[in-house]
Amino acid sequence: MNAEPTATKPRGGSRVVWVNVMTVMSAAILIGAEVFGAAFAGSWAIVNLFGFDETVRRILDVAFLALGAYIMFKFVRFAQKVEPFSR
């Protein structure tokens, strides 16, 4: 049996390493759930701590959600360097 990860060859000539793609995407799903859960929990905690109204809560939700999206983008880019998607 072949010991190399499964790869397919697209038109461009480089080969997609599906094992690495699945590893990074699985980690992104797990970490994304934690990051976005923490974002909503953080906005909820700040609003309740300081007694802000619903408008401020929504603004904090969007701000923390955007921060979480940026963190996930940076995570996937870094993980792609560690586990390259193609060879």
Low-confidence stretches: none
Domain unit count? 1
Q: What is the H/E order? A: EEHH
DSSP, total strands: 2
Strand content: under 5%
The helix/strand class is: mainly alpha
What order do the strands of the largest sheet run in, or round the barrel if closed? 1-2
Mean pLDDT: 89
Helix count, DSSP H or I runs of 4 or more residues: 2
Apparent shape: rod-shaped
* Most strands sheet: 2 strands, antiparallel
Supply Rg: 19 Å
Straight-line distance between termini: 20 Å
Helix content: over 70%
Describe the fold and architecture.
- This protein is mostly helical.
- Helix content is about 70%, strand content about 5%.
- It has one domain (about 15-80).
- It is built from two helices and two strands.
- The radius of gyration is 19 Å and the shape is rod-shaped.
- The chain starts with 6 loop residues before the first strand and ends in a 5-residue tail after the last helix.
Compile the SSE list and pairings.
Layout: E1 7-8, E2 16-17, H1 18-50, H2 54-82
Antiparallel strand pairs: 1-2
Helix pairs in contact: 1-2
Write a short abstract of this structure:
The protein is mainly alpha-helical and 87 residues long. The protein has two helices and two strands; from the N terminus they run ββαα.
Highlighted features:
mainly alpha; 87 residues; two-stranded antiparallel sheet; 5% strand; rod-shaped
